[in-house]
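User: Can you predict the 3D structure for this chain?
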Amino acid sequence: MAQPAWAWQQAPSTRPANATIIGRYEYRDRELAAHLDLRADHSFEYGVDGLEAPVEGEEQLHMLVKGIWRFADFGTIALTNAPTAPPSFRQTSAVRDPKVRAAFTIVATDGKPVENLGVLTDGGGSGQLNMISDEGWTIPLLHGWNTDDGEKGSPTKLPKSWEIVRSSDNLSLAKVALSPSGPNRFTFSYTRSAIEPFTLAARPADGEPGTMEVELGTASITMRKVAK
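Assistant: Here is the predicted structure, written as structure tokens:
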């Protein structure tokens, strides 16, 4: 799928060269041991382990995340995990509604709020991503009407092809075609991946070469490069 405008971007002039960040980074103290492997093929592995005995009733800290890294904004590197399984996404209804220009509703099968799903308004090019809430996403009937001195003119044309994507990993879930007389209100059922994709942030610590500050919960860990 072509990367839309909202995909991770960064001006080439501000990006560190791949060769300067590729390698293994490590951190260790009395409480934690952590590592981050950034590979030339843009895969990564990020692990954190607790070294002290856990407080009674709590589990020993252990985290291992694998996925794809990419350049992000403001000198940041985005670490996106690999989902454990693809989601299930199917259309449950498509009707013509004269009260709207277009409407999309997604119902999660687990009953939880819908997150990280949106509609690309140009069918997957470089257009705007419109995030879908629990109430859905709707284009009102009068949206896009050109006006002249307050008088209603002709409506702007809607794209013929639309795409629903999972924004956290750019996964295309469905493509929808609109026509002047065809369905314009669509409902979908969504079963999440067992572990949904999420993104962690990393960056050279204070811009210092050979270091990498990586997100950990509400804090971060600063690691140093130990191998290329």
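The radius of gyration is 22 Å. DSSP finds one helix and 18 strands in the chain.
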